[in-house]
Design goal:
Elements: H1 3-34, H2 39-49, H3 51-94, H4 108-138, H5 140-155, E1 159-164, E2 169-172, H6 174-183, H7 208-223, E3 230-236, E4 242-251, E5 274-283, H8 285-319, H9 326-361, E6 365-368, H10 369-383, E7 387-393, E8 398-401, H11 403-421, E9 425-432, E10 437-445, H12 451-459, E11 461-464, E12 467-472, H13 473-479, E13 483-489, E14 494-502, H14 506-509, E15 546-553, E16 564-573, E17 576-586, H15 598-601, H16 605-608, H17 614-624, E18 629-632, H18 635-643, H19 646-649, E19 657-659, H20 660-667, H21 676-682, H22 693-713, H23 719-727
Parallel strand pairs: 7-9, 15-18, 18-19
Antiparallel strand pairs: 1-2, 1-5, 3-4, 4-5, 6-8, 9-10, 10-14, 11-12, 13-14, 15-16, 16-17
Helix pairs in contact: 1-2, 1-3, 3-4, 8-9, 10-11, 20-22, 20-23
Length: 736
């Protein structure tokens, strides 16, 4: 029984005792007046009702009433204050919360005890800081290697995903997130957060059997002694794109040889276990389409040439006839000319397509156009004495190019202009030509040149100073699948060389997301955290993955027509909060937002106008929360809104749900409040963005992290135990 219940019971007993005694006294007096008692019975009652007996009885009643009135504040000052102090001290003991204990209304000795505990906590925090400093110094080298790996993975231009043996994502880089977003067959919401995430299953993207087959192949090659086995497969995404995946194994640390092995031989040591796999992904849709087009071209050329050759052969045989009439001879000569020209056109078209294919297959990189112009300025100025500047550069353009060869071509042209035409000033311009190409101009003022000179420069091998290459300007242009020409601007008295260059595809040109610090898209600790095959209720709380979410609504009556206007969520995987994988989406409620609610959540009708409806947002959120446990504060309220949309959206949330309000009542039954702000204050959690869906979700996530060790102190370790304990609290009776 909690101290609060003891306090209520003691007060109730005192008052009840007083009422019983008073009832006995009044009953005896009434009996004397109205009953037909005998003389002996009357004399006994008179003893109770004489002056002294009545005084004693009334004194006892007064004492009981006084005890009932005084017991409650006394017990509150001692018993309840002590219980609250114990709960707050337990928070400091089981978590890294750093704050001072306070017991408002407690007795002086209880407050003195709180001060002593605060002193001990201060000493403990100092020791923790000293230990943390030592650990940080000892692990600085490891952290540096980890940061290098994180930087490398973040900047790779190839998509990389690392999984454990259960297919759970342990690492992915930004390129993988951008690529998955581009491959989705439906419009992505909340920045594509529902497509990939740490702890999520790769089988949401790839067929399980396909990945399992490749993994079996890798394991078989490992068993045969291969040092670095790989497997490759091609699959089709839901949007019809072709992905080529290269799989390689991730192996653990080999067990040391058994003690007593002869000569310390490593032959007895077991091979390192397989702990996961790496997938390197390439979108080969365009490559496949180009290859198919080339094959169709070759097939068409073969079939059409076979028919043309048959016609030519027949015509030649007829022309060998010396007695052929002139009109007929002319007719067969026409057949020869037509078929020869047709074959020539087909061969030229195929040759042009092949050249274009070779040019586009050259490895080109995506580069911000403004960055390339800046690099070109430095290169040109380093090669000669001419001044070079940039003008009219579109800073939003992303180019797909071989920057090294193109810089060589520009520097070569600039040097020839300086040496042969005494050009002292050059300019670079960059602008969009159309949706697929950009214009890059090398501009100068003064003397122009002939077309023959330009063609000669275009065909000469590139050479600048002591550097030379076999490439020509035309080769560089063909490598980019572009165009090059010379042009005069008579109005400005200028001339320029113009390059037409390919723009980077929109998906690739999308800028990388930035934050104050590099986002964590990796967690190697998850290698040891594979999901077991047991029911979730038997799983430990520390082993599960969570989606902590919150909703903002037009009002508090889900059954009365109020609607969701924002959903915010974050992930908790491997005990770590993944803020970089948050879900934050405004929703068009298709109804008015009451003016009285706007100061609370700050969402105006203009902010949700044109946003996706709940019919589109809810499936995306369902995909984001797939295969995780849902967590919310006062979850019954948020879940009621989701449940009422099951019929209209076809989306049903069937995963387990935990409520931080109920869990707080489990671990702190004596606290006066279990509002989110009050719990956050107890746990020293900073509240930022209160009454925004994502802000509340982040606060709830940090609170839940603090609750898990406190539940463990109570012997609550599994999901089933947490749910059962939560349902026993008073707050579990609330319905919406």
């Amino acid at each position: 029984m909690t101290p609060a219940r003891q306090l209520q019971l003691a007060s109730a007993v005192a008052v009840a005792g007083a009422l019983v005694l008073l009832s006995v006294f009044l009953g005896a007096a009434t009996a004397l007046v109205w009953s037909g008692w005998s003389e002996a019975e009357r004399s006994t009652a008179l003893v109770l009702l004489d002056g002294r007996g009545a005084q004693v009885m009334l004194a006892v009643v007064v004492l009981l009433v006084f005890a009932g009135a005084v017991a409650q504040p006394l017990l509150r000052r001692w018993v309840l204050a002590t219980a609250q102090l114990r709960e707050q001290a337990q928070v400091l003991l089981t978590s890294d919360v750093q704050r001072q204990l306070a017991v408002p209304g407690g007795a002086g000795s209880v407050r003195a005890l709180a001060g002593t505990i605060n002193d001990l906590v201060g000493q403990r925090d100092k020791l923790r800081r000293d230990i943390a400093t030592e650990v940080a110094q000892a692990s600085r080298g490891i952290a540096q290697e980890r940061n290098r790996l994180a930087a490398l993975m973040s900047e790779l231009t190839q998509s990389v995903v690392v999984c454990n043996l259960d297919g759970r994502v342990l690492l992915y880089n930004n390129r993988a997130r951008v690529q998955f977003r581009a491959l989705s067959d439906a419009p992505t919401l909340a920045g594509g957060a529902e497509l990939i995430g740490l702890g999520r299953s790769i089988y949401n993207v790839f067929d399980r059997k396909l990945v399992a087959h490749a993994l079996d192949s890798v394991q078989q090659r490992l068993a045969r002694g291969a040092a670095h086995p790989t497997a490759q497969f091609v699959t089709t995404t839901r949007s019809g794109q072709l992905l080529r995946a290269m799989m390689t194994a991730v192996r653990g640390v080999a067990e040391p040889p058994a003690a007593g092995a002869e000569g310390g031989s490593t032959a007895s040591a077991e091979a390192p276990p397989l702990t996961g796999f790496v997938l390197m992904l390439d979108n080969i849709t365009r490559e496949y389409e180009q290859e198919s087009a080339r094959e169709r071209g070759l097939h068409g050329l073969t079939e059409q040439s076979r028919a043309s050759l048959a016609n030519l052969q027949a015509a030649v045989e007829m022309l060998d006839d010396e007695g052929l009439e002139p009109a007929m001879r002319e007719r067969f000569l026409g057949v020869v000319r037509d078929e020869t020209q047709a074959m020539s056109r087909r061969i030229n078209d195929l040759a042009a397509q092949s050249a274009q294919g070779l040019a586009t297959r050259w490895p080109l990189e995506e580069m911000l156009g403004a960055d390339f112009v800046q690099a070109a300025l430095l290169r040109i100025q380093a090669q000669g004495s001419a001044r070079c500047s940039a003008s009219e550069v579109d800073s939003a353009l992303w180019l797909k190019l071989d920057s090294f060869s193109l810089l060589q071509a520009l520097a070569y042209l600039a040097v020839r202009l300086q040496d042969e035409y005494a050009v002292k000033s050059l300019q670079l311009r960059l602008s969009a030509a159309d949706e697929q190409r950009a214009r890059l101009d090398l501009v100068w003022g003064g003397q122009a040149m002939s077309t023959e000179t330009v063609m000669g420069w275009e065909m000469d091998a590139i050479s600048t100073g002591q550097e030379s290459t076999l490439l020509t300007v035309r080769d560089v242009v063909q490598r980019h699948g572009g165009e090059f020409w010379f042009e005069r601007d008579r109005v400005r008295h200028q001339a320029f060389f113009r390059f037409l260059l390919p723009l980077a595809p929109s998906a690739a040109a999308e800028p990388m997301e930035t934050a104050e610090s590099r986002p964590e898209f990796y967690d190697f600790d998850l290698f040891a955290g594979a999901q077991s095959s047991h029911a979730l209720d038997d799983s430990r709380l520390v082993d599960l993955s969570y989606t902590i979410f919150d909703t903002e609504t037009t009002g508090l009556d889900p059954a009365g027509g109020d609607e969701i206007i924002q959903i915010g969520a974050t992930r908790l995987v491997g005990g770590k909060l993944r803020k970089g994988e948050s879900f934050d989406q405004l929703v068009d409620p298709r109804r008015d937002i009451p003016a009285v609610t706007i100061p609370i959540h700050g969402i105006t009708p203009d902010m949700v106008a044109g946003k996706p409806t709940i019919a589109k947002v809810l499936p995306a959120f369902h995909a984001y929360a797939h295969d995780t446990v849902l967590v919310a504060h006062n979850a019954a309220f948020d879940m009621r809104f989701l449940q009422l949309k099951e019929a209209s959206t076809g989306v049903k949330f069937e995963q387990p749900v935990l409520d931080t309000l109920l869990l707080s009542a489990v671990v702190h039954p004596n606290q006066d409040s279990h509002r989110l702000e009050a719990i956050a204050e107890r746990f020293d959690v900073t509240v930022i963005g209160r009454h925004t869906a994502l802000g509340d979700a982040l606060v709830t996530a940090e609170v839940f992290q603090k609750l898990v060790p406190l539940l463990a102190e109570l012997g609550i370790h599994t999901l089933g135990e947490a749910r059962a304990a939560a349902q026993k609290t008073y707050y579990a009776r609330l319905k919406y």
